[in-house]
Write a structure and sequence with these properties.
Blueprint: E1 4-7, E2 10-13, E3 16-17, H1 18-25, E4 29-33, H2 34-47, E5 53-58, H3 65-73, E6 77-80, H4 83-91, E7 99-101, H5 108-117, E8 121-124, H6 127-139, E9 144-151, E10 173-174, H7 178-186, E11 191-197, H8 208-226, E12 233-235, H9 254-265, E13 271-274, H10 278-281, E14 285-296, E15 301-305, H11 314-318, E16 324-326, E17 336-342, E18 351-359, E19 366-369, E20 391-395, E21 398-403, H12 408-413
Parallel strand pairs: 4-20, 5-6, 5-13, 6-7, 7-8, 8-9, 9-10, 9-11, 11-12, 12-13, 15-17
Antiparallel strand pairs: 1-2, 2-3, 4-14, 14-15, 14-19, 16-19, 17-18, 20-21
Helix pairs in contact: 2-9, 5-6, 8-9
The structure holds pyridoxal-5'-phosphate (PLP).
Pyridoxal-5'-phosphate binds near residues 60, 61, 202, 238 and 276.
């Protein structure tokens, strides 16, 4: 459920007509709903109410400082995957003890940053990384709390580019080698083993792969404890999918997921961490764009809009579907057209949807891509020298620009021409 609904024929974000924001900030822009972000965070928090837990928002989904602050104020921890994200989390007021650090390629500088600034744990993904972290911690005269990310070899049955828990994926250590790797970690004085981490992929629409992975984690917990390790925390990753197409069957709810987690892992006496990203932010955001031209091709009708693949890359990168709706609600029973909705970038891949049924639209009309709050703005680029588009946060009847559109001067001033040219 989200808070982007028609009221009096106008698509609103909570109580604000999106057309009013468009008139104020210009198109295209991202708009997020504070009530939806809040609701989604609480669903996860409540789903694990029966166990000691922390919901660590995977901030790579949407790392705007205002979004982070809103979630942090609700009690969220953060899952970060770079020094830049760590700095953002801290800038948003998240204390170090609520930040977990994931990722296969943490540098020594990033490790130092987190150890000095405060960290809940590192989710370590390889033995070379373990050795590096040990060195950095010892040099700082401290001890780094770690979990080891295990790869349970389950197929999340999701998009190729976002499956992470199969043998052939680059993430974690094979679960078959876990005992060896934990023994290695235990010999390193700069590390303190506290638990196990797993994350099998993103946009999962079935609980079965999660349950298969978590059952393996339960077995491994017993095994590692028998080997003498302290396993007091289980980080279960993120990955629960969202309904990108409203016409499809709905994926499992956070409450179903939480019940399964408690059933499979609830008796181990461990603190549970989860790292949802997409489910918290995805349906909490839309991208609003204006139709520049309606172009009648020989076999196609093209709606050329002012947003492009550089603003929202998911369709070009993953073949992803986004529901598209007009800001002016279509009259009931209105005739529909099959439009190809494309951006201005000079690539055929700059196509948001093909043969999408929509009521008749014309140049100047505004449409919204739904489910654009996660992996939208954060993946944007300035390809074709298109400035990053603004982000707006709505709460009730108020809205604020939470990232302004840069000026062209700001863009150009980032480059320098050497004096010898
Ligand atoms: C991307 C990622 C997540 C979040 O995945 P979602 O599908 O957005 O919930 C969580 N943990 C790790 C380690 C990730 O890489």
């Amino acid at each position: 459920m989200d808070h982007f609904l028609y009221k009096s024929g106008q698509l609103h974000a909570e109580d604000v007509p999106l057309a009013e924001i468009a008139a104020s900030v210009g198109t295209p822009f991202y708009c997020y709903s504070a009530a939806t972000l809040t609701r989604h965070f609480r669903l996860f928090d409540e789903a694990l109410a029966g166990v000691d837990h922390l919901v660590c928002y995977a901030m790579k989904a949407n790392s705007n400082l205002a979004v982070l602050k809103l979630l942090a104020d609700l009690g969220a921890g953060m899952d970060v995957v770079s020094g830049g994200e760590y700095r953002r989390a801290r800038a948003a007021g998240v204390p170090g003890e609520r930040i977990v650090f994931s990722g296969v390629g943490k540098t020594r500088d990033e490790m130092r940053l987190a150890l000095e600034g405060g960290i809940r744990q590192f989710n370590v993904e390889s033995e070379p990384e373990m050795e590096a972290l040990n060195d950095v911690a010892l040099a700082l005269g401290t001890v780094a709390p770690i979990t080891v990310r295990v790869n349970p070899d389950v197929d999340a049955k999701t998009h190729e580019k976002i499956a992470t828990g199969r043998k052939e994926d680059k993430f974690g250590i094979p679960i078959s080698r876990a005992r060896e790797v934990y023994a290695h970690a235990a010999r390193l004085p700069g590390l303190k083993v506290i638990g196990i981490d797993v994350h099998i992929g993103s946009q999962l629409t079935d609980l079965a792969p999660f349950e298969a992975a978590y059952a393996k984690v339960a077995d491994l917990t017993a095994q590692l404890r028998a080997d003498g390790h302290e396993i007091s925390r289980l980080d279960l990753g993120g990955g629960l999918g969202i309904p990108y197409e409203r016409s499809n069957a709905d994926p499992p709810l956070p409450s179903d997921y939480g019940a399964m987690v408690q059933r499979v892992l609830g008796d181990l006496g461990c603190e549970i961490e989860i790292e949802p990203g997409r489910l918290i932010a995805g349906n909490a955001g839309v991208l609003v764009t204006e139709v520049i031209y309606l172009k009648e091709g020989e076999e196609r009708e093209f709606l050329i809009v002012d947003a492009a693949m550089n603003d929202l890359v998911r369709p070009a990168m993953y073949g992803a579907h986004h529901d598209i709706v007009p800001l002016d609600e279509a009259a009931p029973g209105a005739e529909t057209h099959l439009y190809d909705i494309v951006g201005p970038v000079c690539e055929s891949g700059d196509t948001f949807a093909k043969r999408r049924a929509l009521s008749a639209l014309a140049a100047g009309d505004l449409i919204a891509f739904r489910s654009a709050g996660a992996y939208g703005a954060v993946m944007a680029s300035e390809y074709n020298s298109r400035p990053l588009i603004p982000e707006v946060l709505v709460s009730g009847d108020q809205f604020a620009v939470i990232r302004a559109r840069p000026t062209f001067d700001e863009m150009l001033n980032r480059d320098t021409i050497p004096e010898w040219l």
